[in-house]
Write a structure and sequence with these properties.
By secondary structure, the protein is an alpha/beta fold. Helix content is 41%, strand content 17%. The protein folds into two domains: 163 residues, no CATH class; 102 residues, Diaminopimelate Epimerase, Chain A, domain 1.
């Protein structure tokens, strides 16, 4: 269903409703109004009512969480919109910031700091002028129209988040289809072969793929196509100390090895040679 308007509460603004509105702006491209909703707004499925209204009814485009009981699992208006768009599960898996945002919005900074295992003062140290300015300007607005700078900024934020989630799912499916896991001594190595066509960022999604299959702690190194040449990149996974790629910097087919030893690039494409380079890089 197409929306005609996105409505959220006036007054102070938080990341919760700003991001929820950003997603809806990216999908529907309609104005955002900041005022209290009327009953007619809640009844109109073409008006999205976000973080206000006391009702979660996605069939009528109403996305509020404040009526949930105090012991309800942390979930905010952003969570509800992500669910409505069908990307919540991927967002919880692949957006490390989402669960803390849910906690912060529903439990407050003190409980969130305790849950994260950090001092309360650490929460303030995570703020930036970007957060302050965007939220402040959003709070001061009563209506945002397409073409206005802040509306366009919301659209960028929402579109980039949706693109990230959808592109990452595609990348994860690609890696799952093509990747091989090699067993080397007491650990594993992930090898991603070259394909035609080659993805724009061949190594994108590998870390998340390993997390999703429960192998992140087992894999010490990665080998993946070099998008700038016909060879491969070799890198540590999770900065594993068992590999130091400066050890292969003088090999004839290695054209780059970072001075800190965490990555190297080779023109070699033969699997036997790649395994040989990997063995030479063992620290």
């Amino acid at each position: 269903m197409s929306l005609s308007l996105i409505l959220t509460h006036p007054g102070g603004a938080h990341k919760d409703e700003l991001l929820a509105c950003s997603l809806l702006v990216a999908v529907h491209g309609v104005p955002v109004v900041r005022r209290e909703p009327a009953e007619s707004d809640l009844a109109d499925p073409t008006i999205a009512v976000v973080d206000v209204g006391g009702e979660h009814a996605p069939e009528r485009s109403n996305f509020d969480h404040h009526q949930f009981p105090a012991d309800h699992p942390p979930i905010c208006a952003l969570s509800l919109v992500l669910q409505h768009l069908g990307v919540y599960e991927d967002a919880r898996k692949f957006c490390d910031w989402l669960e803390p945002a849910e906690w912060f919005d529903t439990r407050g900074p003190k409980a969130t700091a305790k849950w994260l295992g950090v001092d309360r003062e650490a929460m303030n140290k995570l703020n930036s002028p970007i957060d302050v300015t965007v939220l402040r300007r959003f709070a001061k607005a009563s209506r945002l129209e397409p073409g206005e700078p802040l509306w366009e900024m919301l659209r960028y934020i929402g579109q980039d988040l949706l693109d990230y989630l959808r592109d990452l799912r595609t990348r994860l499916d690609f890696v799952a289809q093509h990747a091989e896991i090699w067993t080397v001594a007491d650990h594993e190595v992930l090898f991603l072969p070259r394909t035609d066509p080659l993805p724009e960022e061949p190594s994108a999604g590998i870390d998340r793929h390993l997390e999703s299959i429960g192998r992140s702690g087992n894999v010490a190194a990665l080998i993946y196509p070099d998008r700038r040449g016909g060879g491969y990149g070799l890198s540590r996974h999770n900065d594993d100390p068992r590999y130091d790629f400066t050890r292969i910097e003088n090999e004839a087919d290695v054209h780059f090895a970072h001075a800190r030893g965490f990555v190297a690039k080779t023109s070699a494409a033969d699997i036997a040679r790649l395994k040989e380079l990997l063995e030479l890089a063992r620290a």
